[in-house]
Automatic annotation (TrEMBL):
Its EC number is 6.2.1.-. This is Malonyl-CoA/methylmalonyl-CoA synthetase. It is an enzyme of class 6 (ligase). It comes from Streptomyces murinus. Residues 379-455 form the AMP-binding enzyme C-terminal domain. GO terms for biological process: fatty acid metabolic process. PROSITE patterns: AMP_BINDING. GO terms for molecular function: medium-chain fatty acid-CoA ligase activity. Gene3D superfamilies: 3.30.300.30, N-terminal domain of ligase-like (3.40.50.12780). It comes from the Bacteria. Belongs to the ATP-dependent AMP-binding enzyme family. The keyword Ligase applies. Keywords: Ligase.
Length: 470
């Protein structure tokens, strides 16, 4: 296991984690200042070894959010790298500095599958973040299902530069290699040069988010060494948000390798994935993973039986990969599940005739009801990104007296001096999709608002003083 030039063997990690476990009480919740360093990995492994639950904290979070998380989760300790500067909102917690050179044995306790392993706070859109309690079975079932889907073995060497306060970077990107018995090389900070070096030096898998793959796609034309390194990888995986089809195609054309996508959430870990031995079909997230039940439902809760690639429904899932509760929020927990145990994801999708899932957006922000049609923002965004005058794109709906909702395109133009007009973009989308999916309004931006995982924050998109209307 390597982090930015520092490394630990499995034996060294076990010993350092054992020293942490001796400071932790079984059943406690323990906060971790989740910087992208070896200390974070040692802390989390030590907490799990002790039979406690880790609460990873985003070092970029504001004081108010951190104060809420600490008040809500009531951790007994906070673990951090020596020298890390913690904000005042964490000042009342007992601090333990993690020593990666410490050596101590700790017996592995027998723990029930439903014992909490992580409490991961979801980003709040209409209120403060909620703590999703992930049991140990959720971690093991997801990682074993991904091993099956991706043919992931101890021979694989994973490279990534993902943050460690989220399930993508921590569960998949660190605990995944540990469960397989393989290696992980964390870049510390993502860069295309770092990716190229690691893959050229023997790494076999790359995990990233769409922002990272977009930077790779932009860099590839002038970087033959990057193209060669990516071409030699066994698996390129993108997650946390949809990877635009345009970037899929640019990477495939330059490297001969196709990026595969998977679909998950904090509350569910991983639900679906394109399989390593399946078709890497751009714009889809593959098929349900082993052990995961998935269905699409109408607004009234009735199941959609048609796999026609057109009928949009909300994804609901059921399986051992699910969280057990929102901490201290029985009302929110109850509202998240149906009476027969299906989790309401809030994600909208269609299913292809062969079972592949294609996500079209979030129910709250990406489902647009216009002129009697249910339209997913994601496919319009992909179409817009195929226009040479569009660098970035987001699509939302807003009230319209005639249509119910009209489609609004938020565009970062490739050339701010000569941005494409609404008629040009509307015609472009209508030719690729259907006339009723064309944008009626275009709003120009310098940059799209994104969170730490690269997801576009659509709730931050507010109407400008001047619009371009169809």
């Amino acid at each position: 296991m390597g982090f930015d030039g520092r490394s630990l063997t499995y034996g060294e990690l076990a010993d350092a984690a054992g020293a942490v476990a001796r400071r932790v009480r079984r059943g406690d919740r323990v906060a971790v200042w989740a910087t992208p360093e070896l200390e974070t990995v040692v802390a989390v492994v030590g907490i799990l070894l002790a039979g406690a639950a880790a609460v990873p904290l985003n070092p970029k979070s504001g004081e108010k959010e951190l104060a809420h998380i600490v008040s809500d989760s009531a951790p007994s300790l906070i673990l951090a790298a020596p020298g890390a500067q913690l904000p005042s909102s964490l000042g009342d917690l007992e601090r333990v500095d993690v020593d990666v050179d410490a050596r101590a044995d700790f017996p592995h306790p027998e723990l029930p599958d439903d014992a909490p392993a992580l409490v991961v706070y979801t980003s709040g859109t209409t209120g403060p973040p909620k703590g999703a309690v992930l049991p140990r079975r959720a971690l093991t079932s997801t990682l074993d299902a991904l091993a099956d889907a991706w043919q992931w073995t101890e021979a694989d060497v994973l490279v990534h530069g993902l943050p460690l306060f989220h399930v993508h970077g921590l569960v998949l990107g660190v605990l995944g290699p540990l469960r397989r018995g393989g290696s992980v090389r964390h870049l510390g900070r993502f860069s295309t040069q770092g990716v190229a070096r690691a893959l050229a030096d023997g790494a076999t898998m790359l995990f990233g988010v769409p922002t990272m793959y977009h930077r790779i796609a932009e860099t590839l034309p002038g970087d033959p060494e990057l193209a060669k390194a990516l071409g030699g990888a066994r698996l390129l995986v993108s997650g946390s948000a949809a990877l635009p089809v345009h970037d899929h195609e640019r990477i495939a054309a330059a490297t001969g390798r196709r990026v595969i996508e998977r679909y998950g959430m904090t509350e569910t870990l991983m639900n679906t994935s394109v399989r390593a031995d399946g078709e890497a079909r751009a714009g889809t997230v593959g098929v349900p993973l082993p052990g995961v039940e998935l269905r699409l439902v109408e607004e009234d809760g009735s199941e959609i039986g048609a796999y026609d690639g057109e009928t949009v429904g909300e994804i609901q899932v059921r399986g051992p990969n699910l969280f057990t509760e929102y901490l201290n929020r029985p009302d929110a927990t109850a509202a998240a599940f149906t009476t027969d145990g299906w989790f309401r994801t809030g994600d909208m999708a269609v299913r292809e005739p062969d079972g592949y899932v294609r996500i079209v957006g979030r129910k709250a922000t990406d489902l647009i009801k216009s002129g009697g049609y249910k339209i997913g923002a994601g496919e319009i965004e992909n179409a817009l990104l195929e226009h040479p005058g569009v660098r970035e794109a987001a699509v939302t709906g807003e009230p319209d007296a005639d249509l119910g909702e009209r489609i609004v395109a938020w565009i970062v133009p490739a050339d701010p001096e000569t941005p494409p007009g609404v008629a040009e973009l509307a015609d472009h989308v209508a030719r690729r999709l259907a006339p009723h999916k064309r944008p009626r309004v275009v709003r120009l931006l310098d940059v799209l608002p994104r969170n730490d995982m690269g997801k576009i924050m659509k709730r931050a998109l507010t109407p400008a003083d001047t619009d371009t209307d169809a």
